[in-house]
C-alpha cells in the first residue's frame, strides 16, 4: 500500500525480511509487468520492482536456501524463476521512482542479501537468544511459550503455561509459570486473572527467595502493570516504586531491568497528567537501555513510543511524531508484521496527525492499527476500543456524526465488557458520545453522557487532571444550549 511504502522509505539503510517463500525472476520485464499491474489496478497501491544483489558466497556461508525453479515451475522457463526460503533478510540500499508511461506509482528498491555475519543482525539475535535462555532456561515447551509471549501471541502462550503449571515440580517452576501466565492474561486483557497469577507467583517467591531478590522486583513490576491497565494508578505507582527500590539494591546501576521500573513509573505519571515527571522517568529508562541493549531491540522502541506520548500530551507534536516514527522503525525491523506493538505505533502516529488536523493521514494510520489489532488480539480487547475511539474522533471532526457515533458506541461496548466500572477509559467513551450528541443538537442526551464521564473521572483521576476540567466545560456548554 501507499502507506506501507512511505514507511519503507523511512527505513532506508535498515533491514527487511520477507515472511514467506520469495519468488523472484531474472527477467526484468516479467517483474516490471507484475509491479505495473499492481499499481495500475488500485490507486492505494504502489508497484515495486525489487532489484536484489545476491552474493552466492553469502548464501553458502549463511546456509540461505534458494533454488532455480525455472524448469520445474508452472511457466516452464518463461519467468526464469529463483525461489528463496522464508525469512530471507535484505538491507534496503536505495529507493528510486521509475518513470513509466502507464502509472506514476512505480518504484525500484535496491536490496542486498544479508548473511549471518551481519553485525547488526547478529547483535540483536544474540541478545534475544540470551534473553530467552535467561528467562526460560528449560528447553522445549517452556522456551516456546516464552517466545510466543515475546512475539505477541499471548493466547497461545497461555495454553502452554497452563499445561506447564500442571507439570511443575519445583517452587521455581511454579513461580515462573504463574508469572508468565499472568503476563499472557495481561496482554489478552483479562486483568483480574493476570493479577491472581502474578500475586500467586509473588507469594511463592517470598517464601522461596531471600528479601530484595530481583524476582520480587519482577513480580511487583508486573502487578503494577495490571493495576495501570485497570486504571488504579496509585496502586500501580506503589508497585512500580517497590520494584525500583528492590532493583536499586540488587542490581548494577545500568542493568536493563531498572529501565523497566523507571518506565512503569513514567506510565503512571503520564496518565496522571504529571508530564515533566513522566518525561524524566522515560528518559532515564531510555538512557539505561541504550547502554544495555542492541540498537534495534524492541524495548528501545517502547521507550521512544512512551517519550512520544508525553510530548504529544504536552502539545509538542513534531517531537512526538519524531519519537513515534523512530519507535515504528525499530518495531518494523524487530517484530513480526502483525505484532500488537506495531498497531500501537500506527495508532500513536495517527493521533499526532489528528491533532495537527491532517485527518486523512490520521484515519489511514488508525485503520492500519485496527487492522493489525483485529488479527493479533481477542475481539473484546481494550486496545480495539481505543482504536474505535480514535476513528470516531476523526469522523466527528470531519462532520460525519453517524460514523463517529457508531465507532464510539463500539468502543463503549467493548470497554463495558472488559474494564472495571470506574475505569477512566469508560469516562472517555461517555465523553466522546456526549460530544457527538452535542454536535447533532441532541443536548439532553449529550448532558447525560457528559455527567457519566464526569462521575467516573472524579472517582478515578486527581482533582487537577485536565480531563476533569474538560468535562466540566462540556457540561457548562451544553447547559447553555438547553
Helix/strand class: alpha+beta
Helix-residue proportion: 55-70%
**Record field, number of beta strands:** 7
Architecture of the domain at 2-115 in CATH?
Answer: Alpha-Beta Complex
- The CATH superfamily of the domain at 2-115 is identified as Toxin ADP-ribosyltransferase, Chain A, domain 1
Strand proportion, as a percent range, falls in 5-15%
Query: What is the CATH level 1 assignment of the domain at 2-115?
Result: Alpha Beta
- Return the CATH topology of the domain at 2-115: Toxin ADP-ribosyltransferase, Chain A, domain 1
Counting copies of identical and different chains, the oligomeric state is single chain
What ranges have pLDDT less than 50 throughout 5 or more consecutive residues?
none
**Main β-sheet description:** 4 strands, mixed
What global shape is seen?
globular
Mean pLDDT: 87
Terminus-to-terminus distance: 47 Å
Element pattern in H and E = HEEHEHEEEEHHHHHHHHHHHHHHHHHH
DSSP helical segment count: 21
Largest sheet, order of strands side by side? 1-6-7-3
Description:
It is a single chain. The strands form two sheets. A four-stranded mixed β-sheet has the order 1-6-7-3. Helix 5 runs antiparallel to helix 6, helix 11 (256-271) packs antiparallel against helix 12 (275-292) and helix 15 runs parallel beside helix 17 (382-397). Helices cover 68% and strands 8% of the residues. The longest helix is centred in the middle third of the chain and has 18 residues, at 171-188. The protein is an alpha+beta fold and 482 residues long. A hairpin with an 8-residue loop joins strand 6 and strand 7. The protein has helices at 2-10, 28-41, 56-62, 119-135, 141-150, 154-167, 171-188, 191-208, 214-229, 233-250, 256-271, 275-292, 298-313, 317-334, 340-355, 359-376, 382-397, 401-418, 424-439, 443-460, 466-481; strands spanning 15-18, 22-25, 47-53, 66-68, 81-84, 88-97, 106-113. The chain has a domain at 2-115: Alpha-Beta Complex (Toxin ADP-ribosyltransferase, Chain A, domain 1). The chain contains 21 helices and seven strands.
